[in-house]
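Minutes, project huddle
Topic: does the predicted pose make sense with NAP bound?
PN asked that the exact inputs be recorded in the minutes so nobody has to dig through chat later. Recorded below.
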Amino acid sequence: MRNVVILGSGCAGLTSAIYTARANLEPLVISGAEPGGQLALTTDVENYPGFKEGVLGPALMQEMREQAARFGAEFVSDDAHAVDLSPRPFVVEAGDGRHEAKALIIATGASARFVGLESERKLIGHGVSTCATCDGFFFRDQEIVVVGGGDSAMEESNFLTKFASKVTVIHRRDELRASKIMQGRAFRNEKIEFIWDTVVEEIMDVEKGEVTGVKLRNVKTDEVSEFPCRGVFLAIGHIPNTQLLEGQLELDQAGYIVVHDHTKTSVEGVFAAGDVQDYVYRQAVTAAGSGCMAAIDVERYLQGLEG
Ligand code: NAP
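Predicted holo structure (tokens), as shared on screen:
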């Protein structure tokens, strides 16, 4: 039986692995099929303290992982497929393994939301992206579309104008959800245009294996049109990775874990860190900070169990 099992290997999970390993708790990290979390999908990270020239996201995650391993953290590279929070010890199943733990840290993060088209899944990485920071560079002097009307869509659109010749925002309503300041920036940017009341119904061309355009539908008139572009950036929000926990601990309406007293969840002995419980800040450094907090909270909890 483990003292602590950590679900997730992004900034939050790996920071809690470093801290619990250094506290001699011999943590097991279920790093999942997408190790490194969202930073593993980015390129330059310029706002993580301590790297004045910036650092590549995947390199930073590799350093964190090796740092945790140096202090004795162990890793399982499968996704967890079942978690049972009712018995003590808790049970986590991943791959063929069954792991028991006195305490759990949930750091499974949040994933980008997709529109729900087969073509977007087939073309992801081939002109469809959920991360402007990661992929903007590939669209130098090309025309691209951004789907969404929130702060992310505005931020990404502005960022993408550094590369693209034109950015067209496609929003399903006639009003943006984004804050006024972000709206203002986008409206003032001459390279950004808007198509309102419109949804993307298809991304072409799956057969060619590249993006050549999108099929659009105006939701008010039902008019269908085709819009040529070379890239499609989805910026329609994130979904917290809490599906395995539904009904087992308190989640908010959007599915994020509800924490109290910093990192405690509604189940004693289960702690949460990073984007799975934070839809406000969602930064590498805040995720790392909450991973540290969860590790210290676990340490105190385990000391309490020993009486
Ligand atoms: P969001 O605020 O939830 O906005 C998602 C946008 O995508 C909305 O405009 C929504 O349309 C649209 N959308 C959702 N599902 C869709 C679908 N299936 N098809 C088409 N459109 C769809 O998400 P977000 O922009 O990622 O922001 C999340 C949070 O982070 C927010 O609190 C935001 O303020 C914050 N944030 C802040 C900054 C900043 O201040 N620098 C930057 C990024 C994010 P509707 O409007 O019609 O619902």
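Observations noted during the meeting:
- The longest helix spans residues 284-306.
- The domain at 114-234 is CATH 3.50.50.60 (FAD/NAD(P)-binding domain).
No decisions taken; revisit at the next huddle.
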